[in-house]
Amino acid sequence: MRRKLTxxxxxxxxxxxxxxxxVVPLAGMISLSLTSGNVITGFTQTFNVGNYxxxxxxxxxxxxRSLLYGLGATLICVAIGYPAAYxxxxxxxxxxxxYLLLILLPFFVSFVLRTISWKFTLSDNGVVLGTLKTxxxxxxxxxxxxxxxxxxxxxxxxxxxxxxxxxxAVLERMDHRVVEAAHDLYASKLQAxxxxxxxxxxxxxxxxGLMTFIPTxxxxxxxxxxxxxxxxxxxxxxxxxxxxxxDYPIAAAITFVLMAVLLIGIFSYARALGTERVMEVxxx
Amino acid sequence: xRTNTLLRGMTQARYGRRDMLKLSxxxxxxxGLSACGVSGQKQEAVAADDFWQGKKETGSLRFANWxxxxxxxxxxxxQFTKETGIKVDYREDVQDxxxxxxxxxxxxANGDSTGYDMFVLTNGIELARFLALGYLAPLDHGRMPxxxxxxxxxxxxxxxxxxxKHTAPYASGITGIAYNPKxxxxxxxxxxxxxDPKFKGKVGMMSDPQEIANFxxxxxxxxxxxxxxxDWQAAAEKLKQQRDDGIxxxxxxxxxxxxxxxxxxxxxxxxxGDIYQQNAEAGTDLKFVVPEEGATIWTDVMCxxxxxxxxxxxxxxxxxxxxxxxxxxxTEYITYITPVxxxxxxxxxxAQQASGGKREDLERLVESPLVFPAEExxxxxxxxxxxxxxxxxxxxxxxxxVTQA
Lengths: 284, 405
What we know:
The complex is a heterodimer of chains A (284) and B (405). Chain A is an all-alpha fold and 284 residues long. Chain A is 77% helix and 3% strand. Chain A contains twelve helices and two strands; from the N terminus they run αββααααααααααα. Chain A has a two-stranded antiparallel sheet. The longest helix of chain A has 42 residues, at 50-91. The relative contact order of chain A is 0.13. Residues 278-284 of chain A have low confidence and may be disordered. Chain B has 405 residues and is α/β, with parallel strands linked by helices. Chain B has two domains: 48-172 and 298-377, D-Maltodextrin-Binding Protein, domain 2 (3-Layer(aba) Sandwich); 174-295 and 380-403, 3-Layer(aba) Sandwich (D-Maltodextrin-Binding Protein, domain 2). Chain B contains 18 helices and eleven strands. Chain B has helices at 2-11, 17-35, 48-52, 75-84, 97-110, 125-132, 145-150, 153-156, 209-219, 229-244, 257-262, 272-282, 311-320, 324-334, 342-353, 356-367, 375-379, 392-403; strands at 38-39, 60-64, 87-91, 118-122, 168-179, 203-206, 248-252, 267-271, 287-289, 295-303, 381-382. In chain B, strands 2, 3, 4, 5, 6, 7, 8, 9, 10 and 11 form a ten-stranded mixed β-sheet that branches. In chain B, helix 4 links the parallel strand 2 and strand 3. Chain B is globular and about 65 Å long. Residues 1-36 of chain B have low confidence and may be disordered. Classes of the chains: A mainly alpha (284), B alpha/beta (405). Strand 2 of chain A pairs antiparallel with strand 1 of chain B.
């Protein structure tokens, strides 16, 4: 009897935590998203699906934009993070942990502060653009700050470690003899990478992708600090609806629309990468 | 073997009849939950006498204000503590009125302490909402002799809280246009200059709906105080056109000074005191103008939440700040408009007694129309659009559609 209960007892704190701080608030938010009214008279439950219609019709542009920015930032993170993780894992030698620390070092500075310092870096007459303009590599009216690229670059910069670490963890654990075996079977360096190393590291890329795509899509700091007119992301809209307008039902409805879109995206992504199978293989 | 069982036990779902029963019970609970909404967040209004009856001094108080709204040594607060023995825990927590008010709202609705015994809000939508919801304690003017004696008429006959029943002015400021003459080679005189295609991509606007609305309305020749819904729509269209023509670089919440100094924007909607401070501290030569179409005047007010744990102490501090010499000291640092006209005289005397650079600084301050506007200046300054209950959503959504595209 006791043995039968053990797994449940062990899982209990986790479940209780999830139930209390995730399931209950989530149920409350779903309920809230279907109410109507305003903050002064109160919100009454009317099962008002119109909130969802309003959320989708009014803010589809910002929603799509957020997904694109999130995707862009994630791709940049893979492009920069994969080689970095690969190099640290295979060529880092005894300084591996130092390199990892260097990747993590910016995290010791507050997120908002890091983003604001980008404003100075990207300023029209700042260190980067100012210098390039002086030596004539850029036209005088060229600017990056307050544009979409500034937002995407800021996002990629802020979330890069979330991509590097999972990829590194997988590559680090990899048995190097499989690469040697590939070479023994006359695989070129590129073939060995594409057909052996890359498939093994896919779960890391998958995890890194999730850990960058989800928070970057929902982020509102980068867009409000580095963006300009026409760069508003859905996170800012939710914040405004909740804190400024106190329009809780609409804010909740947008949140669930975003959540649904992200979940659909993630499931198709998992399908595409076939990661479930990869993970099963790993588990064995 | 055993670990495998354990793993399976933790990860695999095993549904039996009982589980289904449990699930349906949970679903029923969920439905029950969704059937109730969120009740109205209004608190019952209390009469001043009832509120203050039996309230006692506690010897300490917590005060939230905007950053840079008192010198870093907290000179005036130290003097207050020295005289009254009341300790002040001063926090620069008001960085964004909407976010600050939004954070306090649930606590105030529940009647819980917010962690502040008094705070500063601007006379905008959030203040109107807090007043309508009855979150702010009625002020006992019998305990505010300095307020009664020293506060200028313009601050008593205000539209947001006539008679100062619940709020007391801390400082006022003008929202006008600031420009950097390093990049702008002509004199800027009107709001229409912010629409000039010559400054494409170099114009800063404000993201706050009430701030940006006033500029759109004034450009259209509409007095914000008399504006109607159709005027708001027309103003929003005008602002959208400015954005779609690529003229606007960014919509700023409050951080327009740095881009102006760097040259990322050349001209921008701006608050008078911020420009005055930047010129005084960084030696920049930014210009500030009250455009010919008119500009906005706003007031930051101190208020005591009904859930304050030290309302008596808070009221004491509020009244203390209306002593002319205290108000003068505050003005010297914050360079916004003080509600105490007599402070100008105090500063003028101090200027005469001072010498050298200090004297020049004080004289410039005393003569500045940005800090001590003349009567005729006030005629060109407008309040924010006063919104009737229920108009808020229609108003803000029109202007958020401009700034949050």
